Amino acid sequence: MVSRSLIGILAGAAALALSAGGAAAQQKLKVGFIYVGPVGDHGWSYQHDVGRKAIEKAFGDKVETTYVESVPEADSERAIEQLARTGHGLIFTTSFGFMEPTLKVAKKYPNIKFEHATGFKRAPNLSTYAAKFHEGRYIIGQIAGKMSKSGTIGYVGAFPIPEVVAGINSYFLGAQSVNPNIKIKVVWANSWYDPAKEADAAKALLDQGVDIIAQHTDSPAPIQAAEARGKFGFGQASDMERFAPKAQLTAIVDDWSKYYVDRTKAVLDGNWKSQDVWGGIDSGMVVMSPYKNMPDDVKKMAEETEAAIKSGKLNPFKCPIAKQDGSQVECKGNGALSDEQVLGMNFYVKGIDDKLPQ
Amino acid sequence: MTTFEAILLTIVTASTPLLIAAMGELVTERSGVLNLGVEGMMAMGAACSFAAAVTFDSTLLGVAAGILAGALMSALFALVVLGFAANQVGSGLALTILGLGLAGLIGAPFVGSRRDPIAVVDVPGLSDMPLIGRLFFEQDLFVYGSIALTVLVAFYLTRTRSGLMLRSVGENHTSAHGLGLPVWRIRFLAILFGGACSGLAGAYLALVYTRFWSPGMTAGRGWIALALVVFAAWRPGWALVGAYIFGAATVLQLHAQAAQFGVPSQVLSAVPYLATILALLALSIRRGRAIGAPGSLGMPFVPDR
Amino acid sequence: MRFELTPRASVSPVVRALAPVAAFITAFLIAGLVIWLMGRSPVAAFQVYVSQPLSDPWALQELLVKATPLALIAIGLAYCFRANFWNIGAEGQYVVGAVLGSWLALKTHGTEAGFWVLPVMLLLGILGGALYGLIPAFLKTRFGVNEILTSLMLVYVAQLTLDYLVRGPWRDPKGFNFPQSVTFDPSATLPPVLEAGRVHYGAVFAAVAVLVTAVVLGRTLFGYRLRLTGDAPRAARFAGFSTKATTLAVFAISGGLAGLAGIAEVSGQIGQLQPSISPGYGFTAITVAFLGRLNPIGILVAALVVALTFIGGESAQIMLKLPLDLTQAFQGILLLCVLAADALVSYRVRLISRGVAK
C-alpha cells in the first residue's frame, strides 16, 4: 500500500515538474510546513505541529499535510522549494530566519500560497503572521508581581531580539502595575533550545533571590527548575503543567490551530489573500492555560486583565512609556505604541535595572 | 542556604555528566583508543534510559538501559576499530552521527513524558557542616557515584596490575603485545567501559538533570567531555578539576548576567570555552612538552607475526 | 574468541575501488532493514532517497549547491588529516572567514565601490579562515597544546562572535532590530555560474581546489612530506622536514579553504550575515573527508553523496513521512561501512576462537 501511494506521489511529482509547478492536483490540497526545530521540542515547532494536525482533523480527506523538521535557517531555500515542487498548494514556514528564502521561492512559484511566521516581508502570494505574546506576558507579569515574596522576579531569555525584549518589557510593566517596587533579573541562555543550559539559567536566577521564573526559551527545563526549588514559573509555548504541576501558575500557549485551519479553508474556498496578521488573545492565537497554584484574588485579577486585553480595553504598551533613562517614547499608535514600535523594540522600559545587550 | 552554597551546588550538578563521560573516555584513551563518539553514545544513553524509565516506571532500570545502550554503541565501535582496524577518528565521528540519529528514533515516542526528581541522599550529620556540608553530603547518588568513579579509576590505573597492563597497551601496543598482553581484549573492555560511562552520563542528563527527553538534548556535552580528557592530560584527578572548572564557568557566566555586569552575554557565554583553552595553555606551559598522551593513542593495532 | 588481522600483501586497484561500492551496498541493506522494521517499504525509500534526486535536473543542481561548501572544507581537511593533525574546528574557520569577508561587504554597502570588492572579500575570507586556523596550530607548535581541543573550543567562540556582531554593531538599521545585516550589494555578491541558477562560483572554486590538491598531494614534494609526517613522523624529521612548519602550513590551508567556503556561502547563497550561516558544514565536512578516504577525487564524490543524503532525506520526510533522524543514522552507518571496508581491503580478518593463537 505504501509503495502504491508512493507511485502516485511520484507520478504527481513528475507531472508537476513537467508543468513547471502549476496549480495541478485540485482534488486534494497539500499543505506543507517547514520547522526550524525538531517536532519533539515541546515548544515552538511542536506547537506548529499541533496546528498542522488541527488542519488534518478539520478537513480530513480534503487535505494532506507534510512537514520538514529541523531545517537549518542558512540552508532552507531548498527544503521550501522541495515542498513547492511536490504539489503543495499552501506552505507555512515557521521561523523568522526563513524570511528571505521564503520570499525567493514565493517569487518563483506565483501560484502557490506561502505563509511566513514572524517576518515582515510580504508578496502577493506571501502572507506573514505572528502572535502578540506580549499580551500574555503582561498578565503573567501581574501574577508574578502579586506572587513574588522576595520582590525580585526572573526571566530566562533566548536572544535579545525585539520579540523577546518586548516580552520582558510587557512582563515587567505588568508586574510594576501591581507592585511598583518590583525588580527583575534577566539571563540570556543564548540558545532557543538547550534544556540543561536553560535549567542552569533558571537555577542561577533562583540562586540570586528570584522566586518567580518566566521564560522565553522553548524547553520545560526552567519551570521544572522552579518546581524543584518550590518556586513558581510560567509555561512557554505549550502548556507545561505536566512538567511542573506545582509550579506552573499559567502558560502562554501558542495556538496556531485556528489560524491554520482558517487559512487552509481560504485556499480551499479560493479566497486566500496576502495579509499581515498579528493576532493576540482576542484572535485565539495567544491562549492562557488555566490559572493555578495561586490565591483566588490573584486568579480573579488575572482573569480580569485577560478579559480587558481581549476586549481591547487594556494595551500593555499604552502611553506614556518611559525608557530606562526616563525619556518618553514617542507615541505612534492610538494612545499606545504602534505595532511597528513593538515589533522593533530595542530598549528596556524604566525600572528595569539592567543593560540591554546591543 | 546561602547564595554561595546554592551556586556551588548548581556547579556540581552541571559538572557531573561531564565528569562521568570524561572518566569513561579517559580509560578508553589510556588503552590507546580514541573514541570521538562520546556525544552519540551519550545521546543514546539519554534516549534509552528515558524510554526504559518511562516504560517500566523505574529509574533504576532506566539507568541500566542507559549504560547498556552506551556499551552497545561502543561495542559496535570496537568491532570496527579493533576487528577491522579502521580509522578511529572517522569511526568515532560516524558513531556520533549514528547515535544522534538513533536516539532521535528511539526517543520520539517519549516526547512530552516526564519523570519525578530522584531522591537527594543526605549523609546524616555531615550534611549539617557549614559551607561544605550540603555541597558534599546532600547530593543525588550520581554525584557521589561520579566522585567514587574518579577515585576508582585513579586507583585502578595507578595501583592495580590490570591498570598497569592497560596503560602499557596504550603506551606501546607493539611491545605490550610482545610481552604477551592481550591487547585486543584489554582495548575491547576499555572501549566498553567508556561507552557505559557515556551512557550513564546521558542517563543523568535525561533522568536527573532535565527529567524529560528531547532530541539533541546533549547539546555538545560529549565533545566537552572529550576536551576534558585532553585538558586533564589523561589523569583522573585533573579530569575532576577540569569538569568542575568548566561547570563553574558555565554556571558563573549565567550569574554574571543575573548580577548585571553589563557585559554582552555572548562574551560571557564564550568564557567557558576560552577558559578551557587558557587553562590548558597554562598547564602545557608548566608541564613543558610532555603532556602525557598515551603513546599509541589513535593508532590501529595490527600485530606483525 | 578474537579477531586476527593480517596485512594483505598486495591489493589490486580494482578491489580498492570496489570496496566503497560494497560498503554502500551494505549500508543500504542495513538502512533498508531498519526502514522495514519501522513498517515502511525499503524499495520506496530507496527511490525517494537515491533514484529520484539523481534523475531530476533541479535536484542535481541542488546537489551541487549543497556539495560545494562540503567539498571545499573537506579538501582542506585532507591536508591536515593526511599529516595526522586533527583540525576539528573547520566550522569556526568557516564562520571567521565569512565574518571577515562580510566586513568589507558591509563597509562598502551603498557606496559606488566597484568590481574589486568581491575578489578582496574572497581573499579576506581565506585570510580570516587561515588566521583562525593558525591559532590552534600555533598553540600546538609553540606550547604543545592539543589541537583537537583548541580547534573545537574556538568553534563556539567564533559562533558567539558572529552572534554578537549581527545582533549588535552589524545589525541592519532598517531591519526592525531583527538580528541580520543588510543584504549585500550586487558588487559584493558571488554570482551564479549559470544565469538564474542556484549554483554559484564557489562550485568552481571547489573544483579547482580538488584538481590542485590532487596534483599537490600526489605529485609534489609537499604532498610526500605530509604523508611522511602522518605515517612516520620520525622518518619525516630525519628527512629534514620541520614538523612545526608542516603543522602551520596544513592548518593555514585547511582554515583558508574553510574561510573561502564561508564567504562564498554568505555572499553567493545567503546574501547577508545572520546568526546562523552554516548548518554544520564544518563538522559534516569531516565526515566527507573520511568518506572520501582523504583522496581529492574521493572527497568530491563523497561530498556529492552526503549532499544526496541530505536532499533525499528531505524528500523522504515530504513523500514518505520518514523522520529526519533516519537520515542521520544512515549517514553514520554509511561512514562506518566505508571505513570498515577500507580496512578490510588492507587486512585479512579471521575470527579465531580463544586459545588457538596467542
TrEMBL record, chain A:
Record bears the keyword Signal: yes
The residue ranges of the ABC transporter substrate-binding protein PnrA-like domain are 29-304
- Family matches, as InterPro entries: ABC-Purine-Binding, Peripla_BP_I, PnrA-like
Query: Is the Signal keyword given for this protein?
Result: yes
Q: Which cellular component, as a GO term, is one annotated location?
A: plasma membrane
| Matches recorded under Pfam families | Bmp
Q: Identify the stretch annotated as signal peptide in this record.
A: 1-25
**Domain of life where this protein originates:** Bacteria
Which keywords does the record carry? Signal
This chain belongs to the protein called BMP family ABC transporter substrate-binding protein
Q: Which organism is it from?
A: Microvirga aerophila
TrEMBL record, chain B:
User: According to the lineage, what is the superkingdom?
Assistant: Bacteria
Localization (cell): Cell membrane
Sorted alphabetically, which keywords does the UniProt record give? Cell membrane, Membrane, Transmembrane, Transmembrane helix
| Principal subcellular localisation of the protein | membrane
Q: How does it sit in the membrane?
A: Multi-pass membrane protein
Q: Which GO terms describe its cellular component?
A: plasma membrane
Q: Give the transmembrane ranges.
A: 6-26, 33-54, 60-85, 92-111, 141-158, 188-206, 267-285
Q: What GO molecular function annotations does the UniProt record carry, in alphabetical order?
A: transmembrane transporter activity
Q: What's the short name of a Pfam family annotated to this entry?
A: BPD_transp_2
The cross-references to InterPro entries, in alphabetical order and at most eight, read:
ABC_transp_permease
Supply the name of the protein: ABC transporter permease
Task: Please give the organism.
Answer: Microvirga aerophila
Automatic annotation (TrEMBL), chain C:
- Pfam families in UniProt: BPD_transp_2 (PF02653)
Sorted alphabetically, the keyword list is:
Cell membrane, Membrane, Transmembrane, Transmembrane helix
In alphabetical order, the GO MF annotations are: transmembrane transporter activity
Which CDD domains does this entry report, sorted A to Z?
TM_PBP1_transp_TpRbsC_like (cd06580)
What is the annotated localization of this protein? Answer: Cell membrane
Listed name of the protein? ABC transporter permease
Annotated membrane topology is:
Multi-pass membrane protein
Q: Does the keyword RNA-binding apply?
A: no
Q: Does the keyword Membrane apply?
A: yes
Give the main location: membrane
Identify the taxonomic lineage of the organism of origin: Bacteria, Pseudomonadati, Pseudomonadota, Alphaproteobacteria, Hyphomicrobiales
Q: Which superkingdom heads the taxonomic lineage of this protein's source?
A: Bacteria
The species this protein belongs to is Microvirga aerophila
